[in-house]
Amino acid sequence: MAEIINMPRLSDTMEEGTVAAWLKKVGDKISEGDILAEIETDKATMEFESFHEGTLLYIGIQEGQTTKVDELLAIIGEPGEDISGLLNGESAPKPEVKEVTKEAANTPVETKNEAPANAELPEGVIVVAMPRLSDTMEEGTVATWLKKVGDKVSEGDILAEIETDKATMEFESFQSGTLLYIGLQEGESAKVDALLAIIGPAGTDVSGVAANFSSSVPAKKEEAPKQEAPKVEPKVEAPKAEAKVAKPVVTSTSNGRLFISPLAKKIAEEKGINLNQVQGSGENGRIVKTDVENFVPAASGAASVGKFVPAGQEDFEDVPNSQMRKAIAKALTNSKFTAPHYYLSVEFDMENAISFRTQFNSIPDTKISYNDIVVKACALALKQHPQVNSQWFADKMRLNNHVHIGVAVAVPDGLVVPVVKFASEQSLPQIGAAVRDLAGKAKNKKLTPAEMEGSTFTVSNLGMFGIDTFTSIINQPNSAILSVGNIVEKPVVKNGQIVVGNTMKLSLACDHRTVDGSTGAQFLQTLKGYIENPVTMLV
Fold it and tell me: Which residues pair with 397 in a beta bridge?
């Protein structure tokens, strides 16, 4: 029987996917685990494996095209099988949302029919629902199944890897038995508490349970545009030889394809590096992150220049928005237009901070940055001004007595905010080490949910890019964010004399619902004392 393959949800915030390359063409034999296509998500370009066996009968989305999650991607079945009914939407396999109490189970079941609820459970059968693996998680995506139907499952065994809104996490079973049914295939998503799987005694017939329990719709079941019913045997171009595979397990072959990890590909795109010139050091010649970061282009007179356009001729290029960019746009728009922002700008004398950092870094094996000094100073100032260290909620305002500072980190396709926990209690070297570790994890997409949760205040620093002053959008539910500019050498007036000095401009964006102007100003005065006299932070 033919199986419809929908656009999978390959990242926690993915709403649409773009087919970067098809690795199979219509008529090809497909085995379970074969790579069908490379799909660009809001995080990276990832390989999409088949969970079914058969022949690829139909491809719905061509290379370079984009569609919403859960729209028709391909159909796999028996050679010559009639799939016209599926193409006409007669049996769309889109799961329906069914709310399930968390007590009921722990793992989601993918059902492709709309069905009544509540079938009686046979003895010993457990329905496992999609778990809530992070505090803000509303839906999850099955990244990988570590068990297959028919496998024995013991309590504590890892059933699957599930992508949340924060990271990919292992999900262990709290039951023992045989895995009788899997509802969500790898790459598919469902809301928390939707059916994920069924565990029970071997040989138990659970088809009725699966059929009578509507699984959760993948994330947002919007009225996705209906796929036009193309002919059953459409023309599909074979995968291009230069398609860049982005999963760490890829290996190079002799057919001219270029193999590269997702992170390395993103970094290369950001830096404009020609991957054909990069020598891969990974397994079987795969290009990895360090290869791209350490790449030095060969000396050449051909400098990178923009496209030549004849004078007087209009020319443009439409670049589709990546999924990560869309997610960032949504979050920032929500913050900008729900929190009444206002801004307080100051300029600090950095002479003492420069001397302090120079002396501090003279200690063997010690290195702190100006950003570390700012983070530490903010942490101490926030202890004295809990109103700025607050969070706004619909029914209350929370004044935090602990200080967790989020540090904005740019990654190839957006911005993440890892959190330095209990920053006021850490020394400058500890803060420096923590920030470097978190920034490294952010750029390698290794941050865990715990490392991105709980910030009470945020620091965004663009000084290293030569930016003198800027304003930021508040990272909700925080009440404020500090924008840090470059240290600038300029004429200043001291004791009535014009002398050469070094100053730094900062801008504090505040949520007027929680932080009044005078409160923000007092916080900046305290911050000024610490930054202009950093030795006071050691007391």
Answer: 392
Three-state DSSP class for residue 104: helix
Q: Which of 181, 228, 187 shows the shortest CA–CA distance to 207?
A: 181
Which of 354, 345, 370 is closest to 509 using CA atoms? 345
Is residue 504 pLDDT above 90, yes or no? yes
pLDDT band at 167 (very low <50, low <70, confident <90, very high): low
Convert the pLDDT of each residue in 332-371 to its tens digit: 888 999 999 999 999 999 999 999 999 999 999 889 999 9
Other CB atoms closer than 10 Å to residue 502's CB: what's the count? 16
Among candidates 96, 163, 92, 174, which has minimal Cα distance to 134? 163
| CB atoms inside a 10 Å sphere around CB 305 | 6
Tokens of 166: 């924060």
Active-site residue set = 512, 516
The amino acid that residue 301 corresponds to is G
Of 161, 114, 112, nearest to 140 (Cα)? 161
Cα–Cα distance, 446 to 526 (Å, whole number): 35
Check pLDDT > 90 for residue 294: no
**Per-residue pLDDT band at 214 (split at 50, 70, 90):** low
Please name the residue ranges forming H helices in 2-121.
84-87
